[in-house]
Amino acid sequence: MVLEKEETTTTTNNAEQQESKQGKKGRYRRDKPWDHDGIDHWEVPKFTQEDNPQHGLLDESSFATLFPKYREKYLRDVWPSITKALKDVGVGCELNLVEGSMTVRTTRKTWDPYIIIKARDLIKLLSRSVPAPQALKVLNDDTQCDVIKIGGLVRNKERFVKRRQRLVGPNGSTLKAIEMLTDCYVLIQGNTVSAMGSFKGLKTCRKIVEDAMKNVHPIYHIKELMIKRELEKDPELKNQNWDRFLPKFKKKNVKRKKPEYVKEKKTRSVFPPAQMPSKIDLQIESGEYFLSQEAKQMKKAQEKLEKQKEGIEKNKRRREEAFIAPKEDLMRDEDLKKDKKKDKKDKKKKSKKDDDTLDAVKRLKKDASEKKKKKSRADEGDEKYMM
Predict the structure, then answer these.
(1) Where are the beta strands (DSSP E) in the chain?
(2) Three-state SS for 269?
(3) pTM (2 decimals)?
(4) pLDDT tens digits, residue range 132-179?
(5) Which of 98, 95, 90, 93 is nearest to 74 (CA)?
(6) Do the beta carbons of residue 160 and residue 193 sit within 8 Å?
(7) Which of 109, 222, 243 has the alpha carbon at shortest distance from 176?
(8) Which CATH number fits domain 142-254: 1.10.10.60, 3.30.530.20, 3.20.20.100, 3.30.1370.10?
(9) Where does CATH 3.30.1370.10 sit in the chain?
């Protein structure tokens, strides 16, 4: 009995010492036999039919999605295999070719409550041109899907097509590399990118696609993922920072040509222009507004008289102007003198020219008369000798 008491006292003392070391938080913590280092907390346990033996859901859930016209023939051929796969899981499906829609709904046999979300993803992938055998893998617990919309990320259509083509690459090499590094199935169709895989892979895949639409080439992400994959193999680098190994790409901004003429922006005030004063405001400023009616009439009459006086003075000045002699314009007299001098010079020149012509005429007449006299003399001499 004494030995048992001693043992109990030693155990209690040890427990108290451990509690004092752990502090206040560790005082009430006890070992959990169901929790140990061998358990993987991130593992998603498989949900089986035994987990829900009653097969009961409180209410029916349904999802519907439209599909394009060009998918109608393929879906009609593949629909029996899809109905069979969904029937095994306890989900009903319907293909409406008139409306162009696919519908999935829960039934009484549905035992997995989350399977309707998986079925919704299945019809979404089928409408986005994913092949049926690949789309049916979404029903597995370890496979998820993500439909990335890229239509509204780029406004210019030519630029959008060019950036979307970068994701595919020459002969689909870039797309294949993305699939291998992310462990995802990726399909680019129209304005969407459909991806299937794990949550981690889908996250990286979405980042690559969105960055490609923001003009970041996918090859940069591919290089980074390849380096990360190699670093994962080394156990020594498990708890270290990998930034020193990852490539750092600098952005090259191409300088745009500056235009020759730049319009100067007009400085516009934030506030609207001041309101023009009204008649009442002007009257208040002048003090007229506060005058009595008689004072206002007196003021008007005075203004009228002043206007009349101004008019009378103007008329008087106009009448007097007729009796004022015009001022002699000295400049005008000088101009007239100059004109007279010019006229005299011109007359002299003309007279000289006329004199010259008269002299010439006189000279010619003299020459002609002299010639006649000479001839007459010569003729008289010849007549003498003939006698």
Answers:
(1) 62-66, 91-96, 101-106, 144-149, 185-189, 192-197
(2) coil
(3) 0.56
(4) 999 999 999 889 999 999 998 999 999 999 999 999 999 999 999 999
(5) 95
(6) no
(7) 222
(8) 3.30.1370.10
(9) 47-141, 142-254
